[in-house]
Amino acid sequence: GQQLNQSPQSMFIQEGEDVSMNCTSSSIFNTWLWYKQDPGEGPVLLIALYKAGELTSNGRLTAQFGITRKDSFLNISASIPSDVGIYFCAGHPNYGGSQGNLIFGKGTKLSVKP
Amino acid sequence: DAGVTQSPTHLIKTRGQQVTLRCSPKSGHDTVSWYQQALGQGPQFIFQYYEEEERQRGNFPDRFSGHQFPNYSSELNVNALLLGDSALYLCASSLGANVLTFGAGSRLTVL
Predict the structure, then answer these.
(1) Distance CA B86, CA B14 (A)
(2) Which residue of B has its CA nearest to A39?
């Protein structure tokens, strides 16, 4: 079945650093989404991408929809402590239907450097 | 404006039992999707309900069933529970095909 490979699995950040994570798929997606999940909460949408090549920002977050439609990346600039959490990419397969049947990556866990 | 609310927040069952989880969608939303999130994994799509009917289904066995009521709320039922059913069950609502809003989930532990 369709899978999303998300990397890195985990990373440590120091306040002020830039962070980058990406997601690749074995097949085409027509929508890419990036979510953040805090402990005890459900995923919260950060950025939605609907067009190949699209580059979208939300404050310090920037995400891009790859030209091949098989990848996406998320950058966080000048990280702050509240950026800690688990980030998921999610894609919608390239066929008709609603966004209900999203496919999620396994997540990138952001932690603070000790 | 309440978002997506789920109940119960935590529950413990034993193998072979049955469980019902409940979800109230965000005000104004008419579509409910259910996801299973195992520990350390991303959510996996179970099924979606619209107009009281199952519209799409993921790769889950028939032990997983659901229902949507006229007020758009929904239930997820799991029969003959297995240890591997232990997970966080997330409900997400939307207005038709638009962006999903997730609830905080119901944490199911099967012993």
Answers:
(1) 10
(2) B104
